[in-house]
Amino acid sequence: MICLGIESTAHTFGVGIIDDKGKILANVKDSYTTKKGGIHPTEAKNHHIEKADSVIQNALKEAKLELKDIDLISFSQAPGMAPCLVIGMEKAKEIASKIKKPIIGINHCIAHLEIGRELTKCKDPVMLYASGANTQIIAYEGGKYRIFGETLDNGVGNFLDGFARYMGMGFPGGPKIYELSLKGKEFIELPYVVKGMDVSFGGIQTNLKQKYDSGKFSKEDLCFSCQETVFAMLVEVSERAMAHCEKKELLLGGGVACNKRLQEMCIKMCEERDAKCFIPPNSVMVDNGLMIAWEGIIEYKSRGADDIKKLDIKPYERTDDVKVKWR
Ligand code: ATP
Ligand code: FE2
């Protein structure tokens, strides 16, 4: 069985193609970026409308397939920006109707976790899911992927992007902050906000902006200190969840998990507690269609297709709203 998956929760329009043995046939995307300023939902939506067909065609070309060879269509149904989600769903419906094949809606966060499990072969991890919009500590317990800890305000990526934007850099800001952090020398103390297994970035954001405005600190030192502080928070809550759930595997996911410094800190924490850290390739940690295709295969096998006439987007569905029937 071959599944074509469409991702469109936010800035990326992605199409992945995979078979039910896990053979990767294509993973193509086109992401909306800006030189200055943040991501605008309507512009992201227009980007998707403009790029959808060419991304789909390029994925088919990469897989050396035609639409008629596809057996299943999946799309990211939740969570995300409604205008963006709609475009992915409409394209998925269009294709499914055209080739008369089943269609299935997928939760994007769970897709991040399952593609990570598939590609790294870890079994029962705690996942640190650190992306733009989401920051969650997730683990499987009692038939669901439960959220053991999460951000109380912004996702860590949005937080980094917000600070980068404040310093006049475009979207995405995470990689730019990383580059500057490498030249940072001095650690500047910032608020450190962990509440149980939750984290919060709002206070740090305000504090950072004040420090930046004061002109007393270099951008490089601020970026370095910002990363050291918020990543330490993420590692602390991941470790607490691992201890609480008695799990010995940590799986990384989400665009921010591409950050080499965060990876280093996670590996070290795992070593110290005799656990293993699993890091999937960057291509599936950022938003991508491949994970949607893979999750499509997994869920289709356990619950069958969705009714195309009743299908709608679910912008606010949470990770723990989904019943995990496939494990
Ligand atoms: P989700 O829908 O899962 O919340 P998303 O839409 O935010 O995901 P991702 O591609 O998972 O998209 O993540 C994008 C975020 O990752 C951006 O905030 C970006 O700044 C950040 N990012 C990407 N690469 C790096 C990096 N090397 N270091 C830090 N942050 C990074
Ligand atoms: Fe994502």
Please outline the helices and strands.
Elements (H helix, E strand, L loop, with lengths): L1 E6 L4 E8 L4 E8 L9 H23 L8 E7 L3 H18 L3 E5 H13 L5 E5 L4 E7 L2 E7 L5 H11 L7 H8 L12 E2 L2 E2 L2 H13 L4 H27 L3 E5 L6 H13 L3 E3 L3 H4 L4 H14 L24
Parallel strand pairs: 1-4, 4-5, 6-11, 11-12
Antiparallel strand pairs: 1-2, 2-3, 6-7, 7-8, 9-10
The protein binds adenosine-5'-triphosphate and fe (ii) ion.
Précis, in short:
By secondary structure, the chain is an alpha/beta fold. Helices cover 44% and strands 20% of the residues.
Characterize the structure shown.
This protein has 327 residues and is of the alpha/beta class. It has helices at residues 41-63, 82-99, 108-120, 156-166, 174-181, 202-214, 219-245, 260-272, 282-285, 290-303, and strands spanning 2-7, 12-19, 24-31, 72-78, 103-107, 126-130, 135-141, 144-150, 194-195, 198-199, 249-253, 276-278. The protein has a five-stranded mixed beta sheet with strand order 3-2-1-4-5, sandwiched between helices. The two termini are 20 Å apart. Helix content is 44%, strand content 20%. It binds adenosine-5'-triphosphate and fe (ii) ion. Residues 108, 112, 131, 254, 287 line the site of fe (ii) ion (FE2).
